C-alpha cells in the first residue's frame, strides 16, 4: 500500500488486451511504491482479458476494482469513467499493452507532492516492439519534444508547443483528482483528439503541467493498438502541384483544423477563466486559421488579409517549430498564390 500521504489510484482501460496485459499488470505489481487501488474499465472484451484481471487481483496487496461496460464506449469515454471512479488523490492513466519502470509511481507522486501548484506531470517513454524489444528511440523524439520545446515548457509556454500538436501520452501522465473535476466531461466530438490531449492541453493553458525528463514507461508499438505513434506516410505536394490544384482543395485542411479548434475552444470556455492570457493565444490561433480557411478565390484579393496576418506576426508565431525563415515566408506566399 502507499506509504505517502497521497492516495494513489491507477486507471486501466482494457479492450481485448489479453496478448500483452499480463506483462503490464506485472509491472504494476513490481512498483517500488504500490498504488492503493487499480480501477479497471473494460470496454466489453471478448477475449480472456477479464480472466487475467481476476487472476491478478488475487495476487496483489492492493484493491483491484473491475468494471465491464455493457456497450463499448471508445478509449476517451472509457478513460473518463475509469478516472472518475478512482478514489485516490493522484491518478495514473494506464494502457493495457505497455510496461512501467519500477520507480514510475514513486517518482511522479513525489514530483506532484513537492509541487503543489501543478496538477499534471508526465515523462518520456522508451518505445518497444511487439516482442518487448527496444526500438532505440523515445516518445519525445517521435513527437518532436526536443530541448528547445522543453525549455519553452519550463518557461510556462507549453501552450505554444501544444498548439503544434500533442506531446503527452496518457500512459506517461499523472494528475490530481481535484483537477479531474474541472475536466469532465471529456470532449468526444473532435477527431483524433483523445483524453490525454484534452488533459494536457487544458493543463498547458493553465500552466499547471511539467515533466520529468526520464523514460518511465516502455511504450509498446504494435498493429492492434488503439492509440500509438505509427507515422502517417504522407508525401508532400510539389510546388507545381500546389499551384495548379483548385484553390478550394488547398483550403480543406485549414477548414477542418479551424472547425476542430473552434469546437475545442467552446469546450475550453467552460474550464478556463474568461480573459486568461493563454486562452487568448488559442483565440488568436483560431482567428488566424479562420482567415486562412476563408481566403478568396481571387489571388489579388488574398494579398491584403495575408499581409495583415504577416504584420500581426501570426505566420511566425504559429509556424511549425522546425520552420525556417524562408519556409515561413513561403507559407505566406503560398496563401496568396495557391
UniProtKB/TrEMBL annotation:
The keyword Transferase applies. The keyword Disulfide bond does not apply. Keywords: Transferase. One of its GO terms (molecular function) is transferase activity. InterPro entries: Glyco_trans_2-like (IPR001173), Glycosyltransf_2 (IPR050834), Nucleotide-diphossugar_trans (IPR029044). CDD domains: GT_2_like_d (cd04196). Coiled coil: none annotated. This is Glycosyl transferase family 2. It comes from Runella slithyformis (strain ATCC 29530 / DSM 19594 / LMG 11500 / NCIMB 11436 / LSU 4). The lineage of its organism: Bacteria, Pseudomonadati, Bacteroidota, Cytophagia, Cytophagales.
